[in-house]
Specification:
The complex is a heterotetramer of chains A (about 200), B (about 100), C (about 170) and D (about 375).
Chain A lengths: L9 H16 L20 E6 L9 H5 L5 E7 L5 E9 L8 H5 L5 E4 L13 E2 L1 H4 L13 H4 L50
Chain B lengths: L4 H21 L3 H25 L6 H31 L13
Chain D lengths: L1 H34 L15 H10 L11 H17 L29 H9 L1 H12 L3 H32 L4 H7 L4 H4 L1 H14 L11 H4 L9 H26 L14 H21 L5 H27 L6 H25 L7
Helix pairs in contact in D: 1-11, 1-12, 3-5, 3-11, 5-6, 6-9, 6-13, 9-11, 9-13, 11-12, 13-14
The chains are: A alpha+beta (about 200), B mainly alpha (about 100), C mainly alpha (about 170), D mainly alpha (about 375).
């Protein structure tokens, strides 16, 4: 049996009122991409892996842990019996950004990046040699598995909260990576509290 | 030569005969309906022409034409309904094979 | 000038209507036949305009093109008959001869008849109001046919629904 | 001088239609974008005003594909048959009445021809566009196109009846089929005298021009794109422009018939074509508003809505108008109040009835 209280037209009027309210009073949430950018999550597994040559002992743990075999390392022994990576290449084109290399590094020498723009004109430029892997300019490490960086990164801006910001455009300079700030892996634990969604 | 009543009624006669030929010589029921429409239109032309050239102030012919259009609309509605009902039964609209009345 | 324009219009429309009517009858492609039927209706609407029947011309387009032709097209689409083309029946030749004979006799009769004096000098006036008044005039009008026509339409609607309704 | 009149109006109408159609495309995208909290196209030129030009250039440069086994002549004619009637309608639109205007005075009404059967002309001509769509659907040799064409036929034939009946109310009040007369008679906009008629006409017109929520003809999720599925390049552009030209035509007709055309309401300001333009844009905005609010009607609800909801209401409306015509003149405002009340009451009551008897379900 149909509901006796039903009154057609009311729902349509409500809908019309809602849409006109959106039309008049809601802010536009479109991001004008090349000019405006959103701040990514602090823990983003971005596409530019960052490598710290000073902390790296060329143990090749990252290369071994990579499921795709994207990391290519050639090492040489220094006179003081430590190792040095002569060749350290990461093929971003094949990476699936699982972050296993970052998690496996015993010396916190490799980090996920924060960039998400990986379009290039040819595939060769997706293979990044070690000179370009170090943190510089907008290549900065993300907070993924590295809580020590997470503190220093700007909070994420989200569309749904009207967090589009015109002031946060280019990422800040990478935080200093002194060995003192980097905690040993064994002591590291997940932050107890989930980070609040950044609201401007 | 000025266009007069003769022209219109002869045109009407030509159209009527074309429609008649179509109605008699075709087997597709839809085409036959179309031919009947042509015949009705031809009669309309004649009616309006008579109205214009013989009794211009009475408009009788035009009113007749309106009634013809009414009848044509009713005829098409019922005719198409019959055609579609037949098509549902026989999968064909060929008037040569519509022999329901033949025992 | 006016006469010349009317003559040109008449001949063009006459050729268009007769040509498309012939095409309706002769074409094998049912869909194109229906489209040419529409052009025939248009030409006849144009003929009504040359006869000073502006209301009737518009009603012609509205009823014939907008409703009847569209219904015929729908009929063609609903029955897959267009695939079979539009064949002639056994009586093709007989029908042709009968039609031509009828045409000849009609033209002969038209030429023989002494039509009443025609006066084409009457000014063209808008016919809408006149037709409306005439249709519903209680004394000398067409009220009864008008009402009968509405009953006819109602009967046609109900008849069509009953015929097509699936059990 | 007669020829000059025709040429001037052909130019005016073509310029009017084409510029407004182009800007309608942009307005629709921007406004609907705003409704959806987006920006819409804003890259080409300032505020994206050159976007339609860019679209046109793009679509003109596209490859013109004619699928195999199509009925070539019909296939190529279909876009023209669809587009042309939309422009033809503007031949009878009065852009400004005779008399004092805001900027200039006119000796006669500014329309190409002031037909005595203008309203009939509009409906007769706009019913032709169905033929074009059917031609496209049939000739494309595609089942989705055919389905779209069948839906179009059913939809347009059904919705034309309540639409014409609703406009008959206007014709009864104005006592004329000529659009210039109808505008002349509108001392108050007819939407106030005929709210129910406006409601029915507007819904019917929305269905006639295949706009959402009645855009079943091109329901992307069901029949891909309907009749224009096989069309590309310029032919598709004709369909696209035709759709917007119909939106423009419907907005214009609504403005002329119900909103007083080129007149300013109550004659507070001198009449001018600018008011007509403003009204056209207003009506188009309402169309977009409805489009961005309502989801698409289901195909089995569509016919029931026309025959069981709009048609009875339009008959009641016609009866009411005829009854009110018997009243002595001078009761304008009581009649307005009565009509608005009756319209709301009838719509609500009939909607309830409609829902009770099984809604829009067709057997």
């Amino acid at each position: 049996m149909p509901d006796n209280r039903i009154s057609l037209g009311q729902g349509i009027l409500k809908g019309l009122a809602l849409t006109i309210k959106h039309f008049i009073s809601r802010p536009i949430i479109t991001v004008q991409y090349p000019e405006e950018r959103l701040v990514t999550s602090r823990r983003i597994r971005g596409c530019d892996l960052v490598w710290d040559s000073e902390r790296c002992t060329a143990c090749c743990t990252c290369a071994k842990s990579c499921p795709q075999g994207n990391i290519h390392i050639e090492t040489k022994v220094r006179p003081d019996n430590t190792r040095e990576a002569v060749v350290f290449e990461i093929d971003h084109g094949r990476s699936m950004f699982c972050g296993l290399c970052v998690e496996s590094c015993p010396f916190d020498a490799i980090h996920m990046g924060r960039s998400y723009e990986r379009a290039t004109y040819n595939r060769d430029s997706l293979v990044i040699p070690k000179e370009k892997l170090v943190a510089q300019g907008d290549r900065q490490p993300s907070g993924y598995f590295r809580p020590q960086f997470e503190e220093t990164l700007p909070p994420q801006s989200l569309l749904i909260y009207g967090g589009k910001s015109s002031e946060v455009k280019t990422p800040e300079n990478p935080p200093p990576q002194s060995p003192a700030t980097a905690a040993p892996v064994s002591e590291k634990k997940e932050p107890a509290e989930r980070e609040k969604v950044g609201v401007k | 030569m000025a266009i007069g009543l003769q022209h219109y009624i002869i045109l009407s006669a030509i159209l009527f005969c074309i429609g008649l030929y179509g109605a008699l010589a075709k087997r597709n029921a839809v085409i036959i309906l179309m031919s009947i429409e042509i015949m009705l239109n031809a009669s309309n032309v004649a009616l309006v022409a008579f109205s214009r050239f013989i009794v211009p102030d009475l408009l009788t012919g035009q009113i007749f034409a309106i009634f013809v259009m009414t009848v044509a609309a009713a005829e098409v509605a019922v005719g198409l309904a019959i055609i579609i009902a037949l098509y549902r039964q026989r999968e064909k609209v060929d008037v040569g094979e519509i022999d329901l009345m033949k025992w | 000038m006016q006469d010349a324009g009317l003559s040109i219009a008449f001949w063009l429309l006459a050729i268009a209507s007769v040509g498309s009517a012939l095409a309706v009858v002769l074409l094998r492609n049912v869909f194109r036949a229906a489209l040419l039927l529409i052009s025939c209706f248009f030409a006849i609407a144009g003929l009504f305009v040359t006869l000073g029947a502006d209301f009737l011309a518009m009603v012609q387009i509205l009823v014939y093109v907008g409703a009847i032709a569209i219904l015929l097209l729908l009929g063609i689409m609903l029955t897959k008959e267009a695939m079979r083309g539009s064949p002639f029946s056994r009586w093709q030749v007989g029908a042709g001869i009968a039609s031509v004979l009828l045409l000849i006799s009609m033209i002969w009769v038209f030429n023989q008849t002494d039509w009443p004096k025609t006066n084409t000098e009457v000014a063209l006036e808008p016919t809408t109001a006149a037709i409306g008044l005439k249709l519903l005039d209680m004394d000398a009008g067409f009220v009864l046919p008008f009402e009968i026509a509405s009953i006819l339409l109602l009967a046609a609607v109900i008849g069509a629904i009953v015929l097509v309704k699936e059990k | 001088m007669d020829w000059l009149h025709w040429i001037i109006y052909v130019v005016i109408i073509l310029a009017f239609v084409l510029t407004l159609v182009m800007s309608f495309i942009l307005i629709e995208r921007r406004v609907v974008g705003r409704f959806q909290l987006r920006l819409g196209p804003n890259r080409v030129g300032p505020q994206g005003i050159l976007q339609p030009v860019a679209d046109a250039v793009k679509i003109l440069l596209k490859e013109d594909i004619i699928p195999s086994k199509v009925d070539r002549v019909v296939h190529l004619l279909a876009p023209i048959v669809t587009f042309a009637p939309a422009v033809l309608i503007f031949a009878v639109i009065p852009f400004q009445q005779a008399g004092n205007g805001l900027f200039f005075d006119l000796k006669s009404t500014a329309s190409m021809v002031d037909l005595d059967v203008g309203v009939l002309f509009i409906f007769a001509i706009s019913s032709i566009s169905v033929v074009g769509l059917v031609m496209a659907g049939w000739a494309s040799n595609n089942k989705y196109a055919l389905l779209g064409a069948m839906r179009t036929i059913a939809q347009m034939v059904s919705y034309e009846i309540p639409m014409v009946l609703a406009v008959l109310g206007i014709v009864l009040i104005a006592g004329s089929l000529s659009l210039a007369d109808i505008v002349d008679k509108q001392n108050i906009p007819f939407i106030l005298l005929q709210p129910l008629g406006f409601f029915i006409y507007f819904l019917g017109a929305t269905a006639e021009m295949n706009r959402s929520p009645f855009d079943l003809l091109e329901a992307e999720s069901e029949i891909v794109a309907g009749v224009n599925i096989e069309y590309s390049g310029m032919k598709f552009a004709m369909f696209f422009l035709g759709e917007y030209a119909y939106a423009l035509a419907v907005s214009t007709i609504t403005s002329v018939l119900f909103l007083g055309g080129a007149k300013f309401p109550w004659g507070l300001l001198p009449q001018s074509f600018i008011w007509l333009l403003v009204k056209i844009l207003l009506v188009f905005f309402v169309i977009l508003w409805i489009r961005s609010t309502l989801p698409r009607v289901r195909v089995d609800q569509l016919m029931g809505f026309a025959w069981k909801f709009l048609l009875p209401l339009s008959l009641i409306n016609l009866f009411l108008v005829a009854a009110e015509g018997m009243l002595p003149s001078g009761f304008t405002w009581p009649i307005v109040a009565l009509n608005v009340t009756l319209a709301v009451a009838l719509v609500v009551i009939w909607a309830n009835r409609f829902y009770r008897v099984g809604g829009a379900k067709v057997a």
